[in-house]
Specification:
By secondary structure, this protein is of the alpha+beta class. Helix content is 39%, strand content 14%. The longest helix is centred in the C-terminal third of the chain and has 16 residues, at 209-224.
């Protein structure tokens, strides 16, 4: 393996059906003034390792979170939704893409790593160094294929989120439980699970309606068992 392949395997490779990479994208337009505080906040507020920063090759910035241990897609989606709610709550939901998403059903497929030429634009996605991220706001892409060695040098400094830190962050980012739902208020004292998280999202009247609908769809498998 070359250095880039080694780093991608170290940070993001997971067994089939499980998740070690969580991607949050802000697009239409790319805006580092909005996503930058999230990148800094997960480190300063939540004491998590820095996620990788990428430009999409089209119109967005992405944050790539690495997990030390794989989780189910529903847990990954709950983590990303918690971050969205906490740091990007005022941003229109159609500008934000999460992978995995709350509405994901069936087998999960991880997104392709940056370094791809995008058919829609002809430009390339790429990991970028934090100090260079702001300069891509107007043009979130590379004009040519990024160097594998340069991409590896961006990733080599990154660390994965450990299981205890991941669980603690999920608990901290849990949506508030509406007071009109006593059964869920009682559940608030229980350890966070994806089902409880999704229930809270679905019943939060202050949340974007489309996200509440997606949470309801994601809950269907829990009630079909």
């Amino acid at each position: 393996m070359n250095p880039l392949q080694t780093e991608l395997q170290r940070l993001y490779q997971a067994p089939e059906g499980q998740v070690r990479v969580l991607v949050l994208e802000l697009a239409r337009p790319a805006d580092w003034s909005l996503l930058g505080p999230l990148w800094r906040g997960v480190q300063t507020d939540l004491a998590l390792p820095a996620p990788a920063i990428a430009v999409s090759g089209v119109d967005g910035y992405q944050l790539w979170f690495s997990l030390a241990e794989p989780v189910a897609a529903a847990e990954g989606a709950a983590f990303l939704e918690g971050l969205r709610r906490h740091y990007l709550g005022t941003v229109a939901s159609d500008r934000i893409t999460a992978s995995p998403a709350l509405s994901a059903q069936g087998k999960y497929t991880a997104p392709p790593a940056p370094g791809q030429q995008q058919p829609a634009t002809g430009y390339w996605s790429a990991f970028v160094a934090p100090d260079l991220a702001p300069i891509f706001a107007d043009e979130p892409w590379l004009d040519q294929s990024p160097s594998p060695d340069a991409q590896a040098s961006v990733l080599v400094r990154l660390q994965s989120i450990q299981p205890a830190a991941f669980a603690a962050t999920l608990a901290r980012l849990r949506p508030p439980v509406p007071s009109a739902l006593p059964s869920q208020a009682a559940a608030a004292a229980q350890p966070l699970t994806p089902k409880l998280f999704l229930l809270a999202v679905m019943n939060d009247r202050g949340m974007d309606m489309q996200l509440r609908i997606e949470a309801a769809k994601a809950l269907l498998p829990y009630f079909e068992r």
